[in-house]
Specification:
The structure is a single chain. By secondary structure, the chain is of the alpha+beta class. It has one domain: Sandwich (Immunoglobulin-like), CATH 2.60.40.1880. It has helices at residues 2-30, 145-152, 179-189, and strands at 45-50, 53-62, 65-76, 86-91, 100-105, 114-119, 122-133, 136-142, 158-163, 169-174. The protein has a ten-stranded antiparallel sheet with strand order 1-2-3-4-5-8-7-6-9-10.
């Protein structure tokens, strides 16, 4: 989910840079001013916080059409470090598709292995690794309605577990505080 949007956004950005660079070069050669770009009245990116969760929406252009892509996410940080050690996001790749949950962790993981999300009074959810890039490894799974309903009702902390490059379990705390409200906001964005 997240990696697909990042790729789309990256390709869109690359296209803008390539096209914009060509237009700038032509304007400089001709001595003319660069043509003004049309700027939408809608924000490119919006972020709203709900407890420990954040709703992120970004306007993307694909095939000449604008679309708004949203997800709810929690960044998991280690005390004393500025950058998150892991992120968990929930969203849809496109309208009508089921919700997916995606986890991103540092690229030092063991294979074969998987990521497990545990919550009190809930069956663990296992996410399979999809790819590793220099910035992190991505695992995802479809978030079924029964798991989603249980997660919405949680107030206790959960945990995220994966195996590091040495084969040791790494367990990180996961908060469900604000998830229900963030998911409600995500549903409103999808209309």
């Amino acid at each position: 989910m997240k990696h697909s949007r990042s790729i789309v956004a990256g390709l869109s950005l690359l296209g803008i840079v390539l096209l914009g660079g060509g237009a700038l070069a032509q304007a400089q050669k001709s001595g003319g001013a660069r043509p003004a770009a049309t700027i939408s009245a809608e924000p490119q990116t919006t972020i709203a916080s709900y407890g420990d969760w954040v709703l992120r929406c970004q306007r993307v252009e694909t095939a000449g059409k604008g679309a708004r892509v949203c997800e709810v996410a929690e960044a998991i940080q280690v005390q004393g470090q500025a950058a998150p050690i892991a992120q968990l996001a929930i969203g849809r790749l496109s309208p009508g598709e089921p919700l997916h949950v995606t986890v991103v962790v540092p690229p030092a993981v063991s294979f074969p292995s998987s990521v497990r999300v545990d919550a009190k009074n809930s069956a663990p959810l296992t996410l399979e690794w999809r790819r590793c890039l220099p910035g992190g490894c991505f695992a995802d799974a479809v978030l079924k309605d029964d798991a989603l309903a249980r997660w919405r009702g949680l107030s206790d902390a959960g945990q995220l577990t994966f195996k590091d490059a040495a084969g040791q379990d790494v367990t990180l705390p996961l908060s469900f505080r604000g998830l229900s409200q963030a998911l409600d906001a995500l549903a409103r964005e999808g209309r």
